[in-house]
Amino acid sequence: MRKTRLMLSAGAVAAIATSLAGTAGATAASGEAARAIPVQLLSFNDYHGHLEATDRPLASDPAATPAGGVEYLSAKLTQLRAKVGDVNSLTVAAGDTIGGSTFLSGMFHDEPSVESLNVLGLDVTSVGNHEFDEGPAELLRMQNGGCHPVDGCYFPATPYAGADYPYLAANVFKRSDNKLLLPGTTVRMVGGVPIGFIGLTLKGTPSLVDPAGVASVRFADEVQTVNQQAGALNRRGVKAIVVLIHEGGQQTPTTSPYNGCVGFTGPMATMAPRFSALVDVVVTGHTHQPYVCTLPDPQGRPRLVTSAASYGQMVTETYFNINSVTKDINRNSFVSNNVVVDRASVPDPAETAVLDKWRALAGPLAGRVVGTVATDVTGDSGGNRGIETPMGDLIADAIKWGTQSGGTQIAFMNIGGVRASFLVNQISNGEAAGEITYTEAYNVAPFGNLLVSMDMTGQQIKDTLEQQYVVGRPGGRDALALGVSDGFTYTWDATQPQGSRVVPGTMMLNGAAMDMSATYRVGTINFLANGGDSFTGFTAGTNLLGGKEDLENLVDFLGAHPGVTPPADRVSGL
């Protein structure tokens, strides 16, 4: 485990800055030349608890290199740090370190993820939207430690101790007293010079998690927050400033080189140029895309904006110098590139020990066979979330099946909430080909959502379907599709304006045209029922009835439907 660097309070930073200012003045007076202090910044984003080396190669890697797994991520970081020495290297992340995680971490409320990040020596991270999947109180437990309020201590002799690194949330305020939920900034010293970090998530976080779960906090504007915090750091004498923000962009096309910045678009393309010129580097995430961009700040000076794909399969390796007199970053010294976390190196044994510890606890549950797949069923959140997919429709079928006691006639599922696919040759726990284990079912539905059934009119259903396309949707995805259950069909015309894309008269239920004034019973998950992903149309539903937890329902559905296959399309034109 790397030695944790000292975190400095605002008062300590001010005292150090005063001392440094005096030293700088003395140096200038004596005519001593300024030194160039080398700094290595290693960054990644959207880890999502992908502990094990099971992910497919990155789509952006033309060599299709097997990549990822925390044992290899930690080993790669150690190799990179050796280039400059640990004291000149900082490791940072831009949110979604937890939440939406794979089985081995998510089943234990992401305590394994935090432990693995402690071991690999993470210095600081921003929060992301998924840090709020279980609400603010659970995020505070992730930071500070303590046993889970329901599941208790997984290892009573060594209770969960929390994160060694700080979670920064500069734009997240408690509604009760309007104070920050977590610190907004932190400072690290390299070569006697302070480097300030501002961490925040996207303002649209409430639309990306269960809105009811974050009702106790508010999320402020990103640009305003960055500029306020950068000014505050500067006044304290911190001149080298890095933003860690869980918001991003993408290259166009997304198949562009992973070290490129081709046709850069998305929220960060318009947001980053508005960040204060005091900010030197912007480390981003959320879109799961790789890029290394040099974009002008408001003064026209070059500024780095980077992202390292996702799941610990890539690390951005950045170098720069800091002037020992001015204490600021020399932006002409920037050298940055994305490095694939290949599996060629010797895995970090300390991380292997973490995996073994939690695998032993997972035990037979992980490998329990809960169903079978006859033909690959694909189309999860890792692909295009703006189209109907077989996996989305399959989960909608499972929701409809699981809410029959509530009289459900139609069910919907957001593609972004379907986190994995069912593949015949995916072997997670030594099972036979085509067998679906509990691990694989969990990886599809890791969020702990609850099934909900409700009354909606035909018009309300249409209005909700229209929200599959919303210009300026938080998170940068205008198009987000809904998987639909068997028996319901409609036609979508993408050439029509927003709000008019469901072709009139095409909504059919079991072959009969739907009546816009009639009432139908609709099933979904509580995330959507509360307006998640900007599907606020679901909040018009009435006579709500709760149901099973979605993973439990999926396991039961698979047991009752052996040999699942890709459902036929239910939507024309989407």
Structure description:
With 574 residues, the protein is of the alpha/beta class. It has helices at residues 10-30, 70-81, 103-106, 111-120, 136-144, 222-235, 267-271, 349-367, 390-402, 438-444, 458-466, 526-529, 550-560, and strands at residues 36-44, 89-94, 124-126, 167-168, 172-174, 185-190, 193-201, 217-219, 240-246, 281-283, 290-296, 302-308, 314-323, 329-340, 369-372, 410-414, 435-437, 450-457, 482-484, 488-491, 508-509, 512-513, 519-525, 542-549, 571-572. The protein folds into two domains: 10-340, Purple Acid Phosphatase, chain A, domain 2, CATH 3.60.21.10; 368-572, Alpha-Beta Complex (5'-nucleotidase,  domain 2), CATH 3.90.780.10. It is 24% helix and 24% strand. It has a six-stranded mixed sheet with strand order 4-3-2-1-13-14, covered by helices on one side. The protein is globular and about 80 Å long. The model is unreliable at 3-30 (pLDDT under 50).
Architecture blueprint of SSEs:
Elements: H1 10-30, E1 36-44, H2 70-81, E2 89-94, H3 103-106, H4 111-120, E3 124-126, H5 136-144, E4 167-168, E5 172-174, E6 185-190, E7 193-201, E8 217-219, H6 222-235, E9 240-246, H7 267-271, E10 281-283, E11 290-296, E12 302-308, E13 314-323, E14 329-340, H8 349-367, E15 369-372, H9 390-402, E16 410-414, E17 435-437, H10 438-444, E18 450-457, H11 458-466, E19 482-484, E20 488-491, E21 508-509, E22 512-513, E23 519-525, H12 526-529, E24 542-549, H13 550-560, E25 571-572
Parallel strand pairs: 1-2, 2-3, 3-4, 7-9, 9-10, 10-12, 16-23, 20-25
Antiparallel strand pairs: 1-13, 5-8, 6-7, 11-12, 13-14, 15-17, 16-19, 18-23, 18-24, 20-21, 21-22
